Amino acid sequence: MTFGKGCHLHLIDGSAFIFRAFHALPPLTRKSDGLPIGAVSGFCNMLQKYVEEATGPDAPTHVAVIFDKGSHTFRNDMYDLYKANREEMPEALRPQMPLTRRATEAFNIACKELEGYEADDIIATLAVQAREAGGRVTIISSDKDLMQLVGGGVEMLDAMKNRRIDRDGVLEKFGVYPERVVDVQALAGDSVDNVPGAPGIGIKTAALLINEFGDLETLLERAEEIRQPKRRQTLIEMRDQIELSKKLVQLDENTPLDFTLDDLEVREPDPDVLLPFLAEMEFRTLTRRIAEKLGVDAPVIVEVPAAMPGDEGNAAPEAVPFDTAAYECVREVAALEGWVAAIRERGVVAVDTETTGLDEMVVDLVGISLSTGAGRACYIPLIHKEAGRGDDLFGSDDLAEGQIGLDQALALLKPVLEDPAILKVGQNMKYDAKIFARYGVNVAPIDDTMLLSYAMHAGLHGHGMDTLSERYLGHQPIPIKPLLGSGKSAITFDRVPIDEATAYAAEDADITWRLWEMFKPQLHREQVTTVYETLERPLVPVLAEMEMAGIKVDRDVLSRMSNAFAQKMAGLEAEIHELAGETFNVGSPKQLGEILFDKMSLEGGKRGKTGAYATGADVLEDLAAEGHDLPARVLDWRQLSKLKSTYTDALQDHINKETGRVHTSYIISGAATGRLASTDPNLQNIPVRSEEGRRIREAFVAEEGKVLLSLDYSQIELRILAHIADLPGMKAAFAEGQDIHAATASEMFNVPLDQMTPEIRRQAKAINFGVIYGISGFGLARNLRIPRAEAQGFIDRYFERFPGIRTYMDQTKAFAKEHGFVKTLFGRRIHTPEINAKGPRASFAYRAAINAPIQGTAADVIRRAMVRMPEAIAGLPAKMLLQVHDELIFEVEKDATEEVIGRARAVMEGAADPAVHLDVKLTVDAGQGANWAEAH
DNA sequence: GACATCACG
DNA sequence: GACGTACGTGATGTCC
């Protein structure tokens, strides 16, 4: 096809892809030989994503990836400092450059470069040719130098933000249309490329001048007319430098090319070329995904353990392919006895349970799967029902034939599952342990692949089985959805036909085994063995006990509150409709925004990214403060609505029918920092800050004759900050038992403690928290509702008075940049893969990196306390029920209260010892009462 | 399923 | 000089 009208040329800026891929990803290496491969991996993923999305009416007819070639270009002949401040290419990236060319060719996309020219010049030349031929062009890049080409059918596409940039987009960026972009750049210069420009003039000023005078040449001719003396002088004196800058930024549209547009026609990738390349790179997931897309079999990539010093000579084990047909369905006692013997032989087994649902406190055990080696797995169906899908949707309630009796199977397995000499491996073992516990089997000792991954990879990705299998085994597990169906017609696992259940369930055990085999030896290499052994694994039985204990919740209290809330809400709703002059859904932010800012024309309507007005509490509070009644009522209504739906209503549904208690579930690997997360229900966010909300805690009660006990760390994060950042002033204040926020205020604002006002203390408190969060002037200003400059002043003074903070922040950032993770005092690693990204993502990562060691160390401390707690209170009539980040809740017989407080407090205050000696002592406050509101 | 909102530490 | 910001979570309701 000859390129012309109706054609659409895509030009991809290859170097931009590479650098983006390199900086966005952790330093991956090819397993077999350690070759750095991260950028190639990211590059291929981006190409694949691009190919997948480049369909439809907008699809390109022609496409090329353009690369830079050689470091010396004609621009260096003009100006020897051009790009002189460019940093050396990172050592890990250099060997990957040729591989990205090969990757492009493997995808069967034209790959073009030209010695002595930058990619931008080739792109310019092709874009102009295509435009003159009457075609459309999309330049896939976010390089602002290319913006001068936009217009007349040429657009840019920022692939990361998925945003098209047309002439108006360029105007937005540069303040001028594309044809004047070089003029603006010539004046503003570019520090990245070391284009000098005119000193003191940035894009804003440059655009102003160009728009006033028309173009650069006129501006320079008539420079005497510029009103501002400084600018006038600069432009007159720097004329040569500005003209040189223009030549440097002006793209060459006449690059001598040895190919034509017609050579760039889109071609289908050839599986026989692409897949072998991906396999050679050892990209497991991508190889499989693309093979699937192309409808061919993925080549097998042999699994090789990562090379280690001293490993030479270790033969790589042959990778065993996944094969569901090889799994055994255990239906006879003799067969099960065979498995038990095999497990005893091996000393370790991967275990997984299948159940009728997700609530471990309610569901029934349906079957058990076991694995004793890669590819060697079985499923033991126990209470599967006669298959009856089809005519009879619900099947029969009769047990299917050929299953070992539940009791008999458990009796055979129990000695193995409880044998201290046999290791049981699971994925999220807390779930299975709780199921087994309800059947009288106490599984121990254990390993958990989810927690192994968490100890090594926190911050990099999730730790669910699907994620881990795809990422580390290159294998997508059988999805559960087709087996169970969805919606109304969904069935429980006991109604899944046994042969299908066997493939699914045994595969889970197989995957768990393989992950364990891979992860376990990696722990020590990542130096997180102690983290795993002391902070992750021992928590499993402790949390299982707490969750099974549950906390008693008084349904009547909640029910009465729900009714009261409903009444108040109805009243408020009527008032709101009255004020609005129409009825609308108060719970719809969209409708509320339209009422407030369109109908009532109130000031301050700001639209978010979806185009809807923002109606968050901060916005409504501002409006209410101006005297508007409607937003004030909505705020009240929202508070009640939240309390009712999330707490007083929903909590009732979580009361277990058998125990009369609420049993939350903690996610050990949920938060990257080491904190726990609580779900179904979340008992870590029960209201406390508002008086009305706090009353919900009255529904959490102790059994008759017992009390609830709450012990919480006082200011644990600030104490850890004082230790880590070595802040002598703050340490002293803690040592003397002072009010830490007042002490901070005194230090910062030179106010004696006895003259402290609540207002000054409030500001100091906000700054203290800000520091923990990786402070920014903007954030503090918003929090305190003060001008940004003032907030910045506070921060500057804080840094002055507590110089250790600066050092801590700088060192933490440098560490994160170098290693890709930060550490807590106890060695927990939290990865920060985006720390080397560009733009706001890096700012996010930076603040998270500052916060993680502090929040994470506090999380480690309370984990250590929890692990030691059962032994400390053994023999006492007390149970640990809940954890809320810095607080532990116990239920205790009244007589034993003081004894439990004493022992639990000692454990908590001494939790850091002996692993870490803190310069600041930890103190614990205790409270008790008939309910949680009283105890807190 | 994404988004906005809001509850907690 | 611009980016667009406080850190970490989970549950709910609306809307597409």
Automatic annotation (TrEMBL):
PROSITE patterns for this protein: DNA_POLYMERASE_A
Gene from which this protein is expressed: polA
CDD domains, per database record: DNA_pol_A_pol_I_C, DNA_polA_I_Ecoli_like_exo, H3TH_53EXO, PIN_53EXO
EC number of the protein: 2.7.7.7
Homology family: Belongs to the DNA polymerase type-A family.
Subunit structure: Single-chain monomer with multiple functions.
SUPFAM superfamilies: 5' to 3' exonuclease, C-terminal subdomain (SSF47807), DNA/RNA polymerases (SSF56672), PIN domain-like (SSF88723), Ribonuclease H-like (SSF53098)
Domain 3'-5' exonuclease: 327-524
Broad EC category: transferase
UniProtKB keywords: DNA damage, DNA repair, DNA replication, DNA-binding, DNA-directed DNA polymerase, Exonuclease, Hydrolase, Nuclease, Nucleotidyltransferase, Transferase
Transmembrane keyword on record: no
MF terms in GO: 3'-5' exonuclease activity; 5'-3' exonuclease activity; DNA binding; DNA-directed DNA polymerase activity
Function recorded in the entry: In addition to polymerase activity, this DNA polymerase exhibits 3'-5' and 5'-3' exonuclease activity.
Transmembrane stretches, start-end: none
Swiss-Prot/TrEMBL catalytic activity: DNA(n) + a 2'-deoxyribonucleoside 5'-triphosphate = DNA(n+1) + diphosphate
Name of the protein described by the UniProt record: DNA polymerase I
Domain of life: Bacteria
GO biological process: DNA-templated DNA replication; double-strand break repair
Pfam hit, one: 5_3_exonuc_N
Domain called 5'-3' exonuclease: residue spans: 4-267
Lineage per the UniProt record: Bacteria, Pseudomonadati, Pseudomonadota, Alphaproteobacteria, Rhodobacterales
